[in-house]
Design a protein that fits this description.
- The protein is α/β, with parallel strands linked by helices and 327 residues long.
- It has a domain of 192 residues: 3-Layer(bba) Sandwich (FAD/NAD(P)-binding domain), CATH 3.50.50.
- 35% of the residues lie in helices and 23% in strands.
- The chain has 11 helices and 16 strands.
- Strands 5, 6, 10, 11, 12, 13, 14 and 15 form an 8-stranded mixed sheet that branches.
- Helix 1 packs parallel to helix 4, helix 1 packs parallel to helix 8 and helix 8 packs antiparallel against helix 9.
- The chain is globular and about 60 Å long.
- The relative contact order is 0.20.
- Bound molecules: flavin-adenine dinucleotide.
- The site of flavin-adenine dinucleotide (FAD) has 34 residues, from helix 1, strand 13 and helix 8.
């Protein structure tokens, strides 16, 4: 079995390392960070996540960290509110915890962890370095994201609050904490002089939702956020996975599951020296519909008709049509 190089120890890279090790390849896992850190993310694990994590042999370890069960989804836009129940197996788990547990599992199973990028081109390589897509939107239109954890009464719902120029998700994570993660156009953030508390307080439904909660730490932010579809092809011997391959809108809550799915496929393909085209075809089957449908919903939700459309799009559709395919 060829030695597999994996660049990036986020969810996609760790999944690739675990899959390649299971297939019998030695693995070198390149990481940029020495310690776990918080990342800008809604930290929502979709119902397919546990199945992929089980296939990678890591679900038990993640479940032991006490992810918060999420049973309902609520969408708010102005005075409109829509709700649906979610299938079993939806959880909230912080990236601080998730990323560390996944990369630890890969190391315990024999991956050699290196705190640097590879100095030369080695093949096969899984490239799982996350989002690096440039936004072509005018500066004020570019989307930036921000996140913090909050103390206070926890709920079992994931809530999406839409407002002019953005939206924010509110959902529980482990240890009774609540994740608040927003995405907004830069122009809108500038109107509030980068004061994310003030930006959220200007939205009545969020002001009410966050009133009993207290922020645990300073906001962290990232961007620009730019959804990108699958590429037409890949260079020979380089298996792009996770966000480095394609990036769906965060509101789908499918990014982490897609990262595990494509990471696992990439690790298996690299270990078997499979042609990149057949790897890409497998990714297209697994996550192609998520990318297509989420692009459609995004256009609808940011249009001037968003208020009407939120009334017409049942949240259960939004959820069902943006699920990746496992296996
Ligand atoms: C605002 C926002 C909210 C989101 N909310 C959700 C959600 O609720 N649920 C969900 O499922 N998805 C969500 N997503 C998507 C999810 O965060 C991503 O899909 C997921 O992180 C992809 O994992 P990854 O491993 O591909 O990339 P990343 O998580 O970005 O990991 C890449 C890793 O590679 C490392 N790296 C980069 N370059 C190098 C290098 N040269 N050498 C070594 N290491 C390197 C980085 O340090 C990092 O650790 C959200 C995304 C955003 C932006």
């Amino acid at each position: 079995m060829p030695e597999v190089t994996v660049i990036g120890d986020g969810p996609a890279g760790s999944a690739a390392a675990l899959a390649a090790l299971d297939a019998g390849s030695p693995v070198t896992l390149h990481s940029r960070s020495i310690r776990p850190r918080h990342r800008v993310c809604g930290e929502f694990l979709s119902p397919e996540f546990a199945r992929v994590a089980e296939a990678l042999g890591v679900w038990e370890r993640l479940a032991a960290a006490g992810p918060a069960p999420i049973r309902r989804m609520r969408m708010r836009l102005g005075s409109r509110e829509l709700q649906c129940s979610l299938p079993p197996g939806v959880y909230g788990l912080s990236r601080f915890c998730l990323d560390a547990l996944l990369s630890q599992a890969a190391v315990e199973r024999g991956a050699r962890l290196v705190h640097s990028s590879p100095v030369r081109n080695s093949f096969p390589t899984v490239v799982a370095t996350g989002r690096k897509h440039a936004s072509r939107a005018p500066k004020a239109e570019r989307l930036f994201a921000f996140k913090a954890h909050f103390y206070g009464p926890a709920d079992d719902a994931v809530e999406l609050h839409f407002f002019p120029g953005g939206y924010a998700g509110v959902s529980p994570v482990e240890n009774g904490l609540t994740n608040v993660c927003g995405i907004a156009r830069l122009g809108r953030i500038q109107e509030f002089a980068f004061d994310f508390d003030a930006l959220l307080a200007a939205v009545p439904s969020l002001r009410e939702r966050l009133a009993p909660l207290a922020r645990c730490w300073e906001w962290i932010s990232a961007g620009p956020i730019c959804p990108v579809g699958l590429p037409a092809g890949l260079p020979v011997g380089r298996y792009l996975a996770g966000d480095a391959l394609a990036f769906a809108d965060p509101f789908t809550g499918s990014g982490l599951t897609s990262a595990l799915i494509t990471g696992r496929l990439a690790g298996l393909a690299a270990a078997a020296a499979e042609p990149v085209d057949s790897y890409l075809a497998a990714c297209r089957r697994a996550i192609g519909p998520v990318l297509r449908n989420s692009a459609w919903f995004r256009r609808a939700l940011v249009s001037e008709w968003a208020g009407v459309l939120v009334g017409l799009i049942p949240p259960s559709w939004l959820f069902r049509l943006t699920r990746p395919r496992v296996g």
